[in-house]
Amino acid sequence: MAEIPTPVATTASVIHALYAARSAAEQPRPYLGWSELGHPCERYLWLRWRWVAHEQIPGRLARLFDTGHREEARVLDDLRGAGVTVWDRNDDGRQFGVASVGGHLRGHCDAVALGLPEAPKTPHVVDVKTINTKRFDELLKKGMRALYPKYWAQAQGYMGGLQLERALFIFVCKDDDRIHCERVEFDLVEYQRLQARAEGIVRSAEPPPRINTDPAWFECKFCTFHPVCHGQQVAEVNCRTCAHSTAVPEDDENRGRWVCELERVVLDEATQRDGCNGHRFIPILLERVAEQVGAVDEPGGNAAVSYRLADGSTFTNGYPPHFTSREIRVGAAAPQMLGDAQLQALKAEHPGARLVSAAPAGVAA
Ligand code: SF4
Ligand code: SF4
What CATH code would you report for 27-203? Predict the structure, then answer.
């Protein structure tokens, strides 16, 4: 009997590819989330909030997250079935949201519940998490604050924002359906400390220090920003990585705003994601590629910012014939190219030419 060849695209791989594509199409969230504020690395939080790199989630993992979301609705239904009053939407039909730090720190809790058997008269913030057997067993031994400080911080944020004193985190074991519920008390001191942490991140025009300078450090090894922090990947080009943007306090809907100091305009979200040709990298974001050595004024109040590469050659981030930020992002794959005098002369001769690839012959007219 003839063997059945293994197909390249199996049904499973097609399903996972679907989730990977959906995840890749998702834009990074516009705000700093309470769900991540307990992350150990402040630099991570800053880079994420500034859209420095797009998170690539493999399809299998993206589907796993989706499974977790579906479980949330199921557990809330279970609570209702058990006689607990559950509100998972406010009067506007939206999830309960909290916002502070000028609208830049935000979060949405799964529900608020009243009538829980542990304390029937006390309203609780409710959040549902799914975890595997190993983590579930660890959780039983160590408790949520020790094992999941991020969730504990998240609980503080929701309680502080909704002015509630208690939270109930419901953990479901994905492998055997065990359920563990952990109640958390509001801790004003910790809530204020976490808000201050967020404020520091929002106010900082530059990324905080790395949690560790060793690229093999365990928290860095699998981090989305490893290629930026420990490699030579250059930040994405959008208003949040531009030296001209500033985060300012909220609009009427409590959403943090951003302004462009060059154009003197408030930036809507779509504009922020696109950026413009006036984009000039926050110089420290290029530190892994080159060192800033100067800046000169350009027409329209912008600046052309010069950098020196390790071999001593220089290049400039500015309007053509200098390198735009998008060209620098392309060229950083072979940084010596940016300092190449012949290439710079070619660009000066042909002001419409732009660098499109770091491979040889990577200039297009
Ligand atoms: S790679 Fe390390 S230092 Fe950089 S953001 Fe991630 S955890 Fe922080
Ligand atoms: S100069 Fe352009 S990229 Fe920079 S903040 Fe203003 S609009 Fe955004």
Answer: 3.90.320.10
